[in-house]
Each structure stands twice: as C-alpha cells, then as structure tokens.
Specification:
single chain, 284 residues, mainly alpha, 6 helices, 0% strand, Chromatin_SPT2, coiled coil, histone binding, SPT2 chromatin protein, DNA binding
C-alpha cells in the first residue's frame, strides 16, 4: 500500500512538472512570436520611412534641376542672339576656295613659270633668231622681256637666336671642401717659400757681413792694428738686457709660426664642422 501511494505521488509530481514545462514553453513561444511580430513591424515602419525619404529626395532633386534647365535655355538663347548680332555686323561671308583647289592652282602656276618656252610662245623675231642660231651651231637663248617679272632675290633666313646659357652648376659640399683644402695648401706653400726666401736673404746678408769684416780686418792690418782685438773690448756691455735682437727675432718667428698653425687648425675645424652639417642635412 505504501509503495502504491508513493508511486501515485511520483506520477502526480511528474504530471505537474510536465504541465509546468508545457506552460513555460507556451509562454516562451508566445514571447518569441511577439518579439518577431515587433521586429517585423519595426522593419515595415523603417521601410515606409525610407520610401518617404527617397521620395522627398527625388522631389528635391527635381525641384533643383528645374531652375538649372531654365538657366541653360536662357544661356542658349542669349548665345544665339549674340551670334546673330555678330553675323549681322560682319555681313555675308565670301565663299572660300577649298585648300585642294588653291594648292592645285598654285602648282599649275609654278609649272607654267618653270616650263621652257615653246615655238608657239616665241615671237617672229625670236623664231628667226632661233633658226640663225641653229644654222651657226650655237644654242639659242631667249632674251628677257620687258614685261617679264624680275627675278626673285634670295632672302636670307635670320639665324636662330643663341640658346640661353645654362646656369652655373652649384658646387657640392665635397667639391667646396676639396677646393678649400687646395687653396689652403697653396697658401701654406707660398708662406713656406716666402720663409725660405727670407732665410736665403739672411744667409746672403751674413755672407756679405763676413766679407766686409774680412776686408775691414785687412784695412786695419795695413795700419798695423788688429780690428778683432779692438772690437772685443767691452765698451758697452748688454749683459743686463733680458734678450738680444737675435733672441727677439727668433721669438717673433716662433710666435708667427705658432699663430699660423693655430689659424690652420681653426680653419680645419670650421671646414670639418661645415662638412658634417652638410652631410647631416643631406641625410635628413
């Protein structure tokens, strides 16, 4: 009995669950159908709205096209009126000869000018002269007529104008650097040559001084005196002086050489900086 009661209770619960599931499925189907109908209604509303918008746009384009067509007709009418006025002012045009007929007439005229005169075009006197020339065995040359057109003079065609000279090519940074280096080397070589000439002049002066000193010694010897002993006397000593003339001259030379080296070093630094700047600008 207890088993039967439990069985009936389980069957009742299963039936209730099936009914609940069927009810929920029916509600879900109803909601789905409602949402589908709502979506379809929205699509229909959107389609109607798009159709109305397209109709409005077409009406607007048609309304905008009407004034333009009217303006075109007015412009065409104005052009026709202007053309008629111009034709009326010019008058009737003369008939023009076609290009082929004109060229044909010019060619015929040129052939008529180049053809040799025949017997039919010669006068009676010219025919008589031709017979006489034939009897004598010489060629007959027709004398120029008074009414004949003078020969054309050869006209010189003007020589074509010389083409404008091309602008000078701009030097590159490398070419400018090479040119500056060559100029610097030339200046340095000129300075060295000037220094060598100065040294040679000094050597010549020293040789001349030695020659003059030897001559003076000989002259002093004629009088029985020794010039070297007289010159060796300490008459006006310069021991208290800081530097002699020779030391000052050497110092000036060293200072000039040092200054020249400094100038060359600064010039090379400037050229190197310029070259790097040009390379950086070209790479950018």
């Amino acid at each position: 009995m207890q088993f039967e009661a439990l069985k009936r209770e389980a069957q009742a619960r299963a039936a209730a669950q099936r009914e609940e599931l069927a009810r929920k499925m029916a509600e879900r189907d109803a909601k789905r159908n409602e949402s589908e109908r709502e979506a379809q209604r929205r699509q229909e509303d959107r389609a109607r709205w798009l159709a109305k918008e397209r109709a409005k746009a077409q009406e607007a384009r048609a309304a905008a096209a009407k004034p333009s067509a009217l303006a075109e007709r007015r412009a065409a009418a104005a052009a026709r009126v202007e053309k008629a006025a111009v034709e009326k002012a010019r008058g009737p045009e003369k008939p023009r000869t076609p290009a082929f007929q004109k060229a044909k007439a010019q060619a015929a005229e040129k052939r008529a000018q180049l053809t040799r005169p025949s017997d039919s075009t010669l006068t009676r006197e010219e025919k008589r002269q031709k017979r006489m020339a034939k009897d004598l065995g010489v060629s007959f040359r027709r004398a120029p007529r008074a009414d004949a057109a003078p020969p054309r003079k050869a006209t010189r065609t003007p020589a074509p104008a010389p083409a404008p000279a091309a602008p000078p090519r701009r030097k590159t940074a490398r070419e400018q650097f090479v040119e500056d280096e060559a100029r610097r080397k030339r200046e340095a070589a000129e300075e060295d040559s000037e220094d060598d000439m100065y040294d040679e002049d000094e050597d010549e002066d020293e040789d001349e001084d030695d020659t003059q000193a030897s001559l003076r010694d000989e002259i002093w010897g004629l009088f029985g005196k020794k010039r070297q002993q007289y010159m060796a006397r300490d008459v006006d000593s310069d021991e208290d002086m800081e530097a002699g003339a020779f030391d000052v001259l050497n110092e000036e030379r060293r200072a000039a050489a040092h200054a020249r080296r400094e100038d060359e070093r600064e010039e090379r630094a400037l050229l190197e900086a310029k070259r790097r700047k040009m390379q950086a600008r070209g790479g950018a």
